[in-house]
Amino acid sequence: MTRAANLLITIRRWIEMETPSHDPSAVAELARQVAADAEQAGLRTTLLGVGSEVGPLLVVSSRSPGDERPGILVLAHLDTVHPIGTLARNPFRIEDDRVYGPGSFDMKAGACVALEALKDCVRRGRGTLPVDMLFVPDEEIGSAASRSDIERIAGLARYALVAEPARAGGRCVTARKGIGALRMRAFGCAAHAGLQHERGRNAIRELAHQVLALEAMTDYDRGITVNVGRIEGGTTTNVVPEQAALAAEFRMPTREAADELQLQLGALRPATPDVRLEIESWLKRPPYERSAASAGLLAQAQRAAALAGFELAEAPMTGGASDGNFTSAMGIPTLDGLGVAGDGAHSLHEHFLLSSLEPRLAFWTHLLEDLA
Ligand SMILES: [Zn+2]
């Protein structure tokens, strides 16, 4: 049996274990299986608890105990966006070159390929840089629970490689926007809508002003978007609403833009007299900016791809973030989107291309060796 055929069996097993981010025990079960598989290949594994809401963070390492040399950090995640039961709607199957299943493309196949390459390097005694590979349990919900551990382990990284799905045409990712979050609450004054309307201070009306102010911060030319995605408030129509709340998300390409948005948010004031605003904002994922160091890493990856028989092009900056945003913001040369080719991430027609398995496996093996 070819390596790709063997690998496909493992990928199928991973896909058929459904692992939504919000199901800690399902993610934990897959993490244990991946750990057992890695241990069999002579790798060290650690399952780190990162809170009761999500599964454990699995660390697979080729380091010997006490080895603290700067190494290669490989980022992968085991969770998917798909609720349990999606497998029945998008079952594992192969149609022509397409391999379907929930989480197939994003990113079980890519994670499996990267691990296989690492096992291969260890088996053959190749590669001299230590490799730490992380299987994150909550990437699809922002990696809030894993973030501090990811950043701590990334402290030992000289390079970061992310096995997220490749972009259209198999291209890799060298820049991603950052994501900011905002929660805003307005506190007005309730009153009878018929008897004392003038005494009321309408919290919803206040937020209506704020929605327009927030959305006006969108600047497509500069790649900055603001999306007010949730709003709620009031009790019933004969009461002037005392409270209202909204949640928004920001995406921005640079740290500079993130700082600028922060200033703009800090300058927001209530438009309605006697209404108080509470604003809370934070950077969920810092922007992942293209750097000279990451361009050097790309050049090395392109050589590895050429050896594996394909051309690795660079995709334009993407609005979707990943755990690569954390490592990049730490100043670690980061290359992302190195997983398999395919399409339909987060949808019911999610699939990867069978023909990309073998070349990507060869690519990862070359890259892990060459970076050493
Ligand atoms: Zn992903």
SSE layout and pairing:
Layout: H1 3-16, H2 24-40, E1 44-48, E2 57-61, E3 71-77, H3 86-89, E4 93-95, E5 98-100, H4 104-123, E6 131-136, H5 147-154, E7 157-162, E8 178-187, E9 191-192, H6 203-215, E10 225-233, E11 239-240, E12 243-252, H7 255-266, E13 276-285, H8 292-307, H9 324-329, E14 334-335, E15 342-343, E16 351-353, H10 357-370
Parallel strand pairs: 3-6, 3-7, 7-14
Antiparallel strand pairs: 1-2, 2-6, 4-5, 5-16, 8-12, 8-13, 9-11, 10-12, 15-16
Helix pairs in contact: 1-4, 4-10, 8-10
Explain how this protein is built.
- With 372 residues, the protein is of the alpha+beta class.
- It folds into 2 domains: 3-176 and 288-370, Zn peptidases (Aminopeptidase), CATH 3.40.630; 178-285, Alpha-Beta Plaits (2-Layer Sandwich).
- The chain has helices spanning 3-16, 24-40, 86-89, 104-123, 147-154, 203-215, 255-266, 292-307, 324-329, 357-370; strands spanning 44-48, 57-61, 71-77, 93-95, 98-100, 131-136, 157-162, 178-187, 191-192, 225-233, 239-240, 243-252, 276-285, 334-335, 342-343, 351-353.
- Strand 15 (342-343) and strand 16 form a beta hairpin.
- The chain is elongated, with a radius of gyration of 23 Å.
- The model has no long low-confidence stretch (mean pLDDT 96).
- The structure holds zinc ion (ZN).
